Amino acid sequence: MNLSIINQPFALTPAQIADYQRNGFLKIKEVIPPDVIEHFNAIISAKVAQLNKVAVPLEERDTYGKAFLQLFNLWREDADIKELVFSRRLAQIATDLMQVDGVRIYHDQALFKEGGGGITPWHADQHYWPLSSDKTVTVWIPLQATPLKMGPLEFSAGSQRIVLGRELSISDTSEKVIRENLRINNFPHTIEPFDIGEVSFHSGWVFHRAGANTTQEVRKVMTIIYMDKDIKLKQPENSGQENDWKTWCPGVEIGHVAASPLNPVLFEH
User: Fold this and answer.
1) Which among 19, 43, 3, 69 has a CA at the least distance from the CA of 203?
2) Architecture of the structural domain at 3-121+135-163+190-231
3) Do 197 and 31 meet the contact criterion of CB atoms below 8 Å apart?
């Protein structure tokens, strides 16, 4: 196993960058070798099992609670997980897709959709982020091959240009309202499985969702959110953004670069 590959350059084609800019997302095969994915799967799974505090049975949770188990900033909990989260390869891809000079980490999160877990409703991530521009991107790293029956990430191509629905938190309402608006405006809907080692990058404002996990296996995913290294903190517009400011950019003043100790630069040209 060659762990160093996660810090080696990855050459994107001009067509891939153009696809991301147009569609708001890009799926890329063979970014991380299968044996490296399996290595991190074992480490992240053990840490999630250790830290998970959700005791409510699946059937008694609301739609958000049924969507996934969610644990944040595992890079601060485990040195091995930090290696993946601080991967120069992934941060370089994020930098090149956004066409910026470099990226900081906003935060990471493990998203484990349990066997029998429900849908993740339509939403845009940046609804929750008090950040001054759209130069944000999330890498979605499945820790196993993810067929359709496990609920892989789905995207509405080009929907980062739509404003209606941005004000909605993840909920039954967001699923209904955004789905209908995307249907009326005929935005292409991409639903595809993920091979092991395949990852996706999606922008902060592109609308996306995931189906239910109809298997008895856990759909394990690690995500890392990147932001332009020069992005600034803006005045929060909702309670989620207020919470994110205090949690992920503590001590940063409004109008200043989001450069708290939790937001180091991970790559720059």
Assistant:
1) 19
2) Sandwich (2.60)
3) yes
Residues recorded for the chain: 269
Q: Domain residue spans in the chain?
A: 3-121+135-163+190-231
Question: Which of 98, 101, 112 lies closest to 16, judged by CA?
Answer: 98
Residue 182, classed as helix, strand or coil, is: helix
Distance CA 244, CA 125 (A): 12
Pull the structure tokens for residue 236: 């929060």
DSSP track, 82-124: HHHHT-HHHHHHHHHHHT-SEEEEEEEEEEEE-TT---EEEE-
Q: Which amino acid appears at position 230 of this protein?
A: D
User: Which pLDDT tens digits describe the chain residue by residue (269 residues)?
Assistant: 999 999 999 999 999 999 999 999 999 999 999 999 999 999 999 999 999 887 667 676 777 666 678 999 999 999 999 999 999 999 999 999 999 999 999 999 999 999 999 999 999 999 999 999 999 999 999 999 999 999 999 999 999 999 999 999 999 999 999 999 999 999 999 999 999 999 999 999 999 999 999 999 999 999 999 999 999 999 999 999 999 999 999 999 999 999 999 999 999 99
**Three-state secondary-structure class, residue 70:** strand
Sign of CA dihedral 50, 56, 57, 58: negative
d(CA 210, CA 148): 9
Angle at which helices 88-98 and 14-23 cross, to 10°: 70
Rounded Cα gap, residues 59 and 65, in angstroms = 9
Paired with 131 in beta bridges are: 233
